[in-house]
Structure formats: C-alpha cells, structure tokens
C-alpha cells in the first residue's frame, strides 16, 4: 500500500489545552503509537525541536516523523519575514525526511480561546483575501523549492474554515497544497467527500478526524468554544463517527495520493483511553485505506 499511517499525539496530550494529558510522558505517547500499529507520528508539544535530539528518540521507537503544525501570520508580515520565522521548523521537518508541512494562518484565530464561541471566529475581508492568497502561494512555492509541500490545514476557529473558503483558497493559488481534515470540514458544515473529489490532486496531507454527530449538534446548539467542544467529545477516531471514509479516500487514491494518513482526534484522555482509541483508529483507518488504495 502506497500510503502510510501515522497518529498525532493529541490522542495522549493536547497542544491547545496542555493540562489534558500533562502527566503523560513523550515515551508513553511514542511507545503506544507503535504498539497500536502506526508507522509515524506528527509533532506535539512534548517533542524536542532539534533534529539531533528528536531523531534518536523516534528511531528508538521505529517511528518516522510525518509532519508538524506551523501557524503563520501572513496577514501581518511578508513572506520573507514568515520564512525566517519558520526556518527552525522547516529545518527540523526537512532533516527528519518530511515531505509536507502542516500550515495554518492563525492571525486573529480563536481556536485556542476557551471563552470564545467557535461561531464567532474571524472572517476574511476582501482586502485580506487579496493580501493572504498571494503570500500563501509564494510561501508554498518557496517551501516546494525546499522539498516540502505546503499542506494547508483548514481549521475551526481560523480564517479559512468553511468549504467555500477552501474552494476560494484553492482557486486563488497554484502552489498551495491542501491538508484535507475530514473532522474539521464536517464540523464547519462542509462535505469531505465533495472536497476530496474537487481537490484530490492538490491534497498533500490527510487528517482522519471523525465527528460524533450528536455531540456536534449539541455543541453548536450551545454555541460552545472550540476547546469546550473538544472536551464535550465532538471528535473521535476514524470509524467511530459519522464521516464516510469509504467514500472520501477513493477520490484521493484515484488522484495518486501517496503520503500519510494521520489519525488526529483530540479527546480528553481521562475519558477516552489513549491506547484503546489509538488502536481503534489505526485498525479502522487501515481497513478503509486497504479498500481505497489496495
């Protein structure tokens, strides 16, 4: 199978809410990721951020680095300044053999604000679109010259969240690749199957985050923040929610996708036992992937 399975350490310890899983050491995250069957991991807040420190740790567990999140501020600074700010991250991913960089524009983002309802997230003005898209495209081109595809992560609580915004970003750029996150898109009211069909050739990374439909309806009705929605259990691992992976994955498979499929499902580890859900996510995703990719 030309795709590989990875997991984000959010299953064990949360980046936006460090108190979730704060007591869990990195060793446990990596050992259990391997035990669950994964070949790789994404970066998390407990990972050392230099190649010399991180590579031996991953090698000891037989895990590769799949990618890692980078939050840009391209509405507030030009591409030269953004590339300079991103350089340590770019160097780390490159040194560890990554081929894509998870990228999200986080200017004015509210996903980390527990007191702000996710429905009140910022929306780009026409003038901001005119600034952001050329800068994103130029940064994506420069990353490509460095051997890294930009994998733009549409994300709840940020400037590019909805399916229409994804469509506009794709139409307005040439070099930007898409990180298709099935959970975030479903939460935003979009259709992951349609997005996969429309943008299959531009997908450079994939997050298999599932949604509990009943919880999603409840948190939207209560106008909760992104973080409170996480605590309520809106996200889960693939195959445990309402996303139709059997319909999503064939579109990117037919387009030749050969990157990572990443289980990313932040939950409260005190409620959702990490190893149990890691195993469930791996086994379900492996089954979906085998059917789509052969």
From TrEMBL:
It comes from the Bacteria. GO terms for molecular function: myo-inosose-2 dehydratase activity. Residues 30-275 form the Xylose isomerase-like TIM barrel domain. InterPro entries: IolE/MocC, IolE/XylAMocC-like, Xyl_isomerase-like_sf, Xyl_isomerase-like_TIM-brl. Its EC number is 4.2.1.44. The keyword Cell wall biogenesis/degradation does not apply. This is Myo-inosose-2 dehydratase. The keyword Translocase does not apply. Pfam families: AP_endonuc_2. PANTHER family: HYDROXYPYRUVATE ISOMERASE (PTHR12110), INOSOSE DEHYDRATASE (PTHR12110:SF41). Gene3D superfamilies: Divalent-metal-dependent TIM barrel enzymes. Keywords: Lyase.
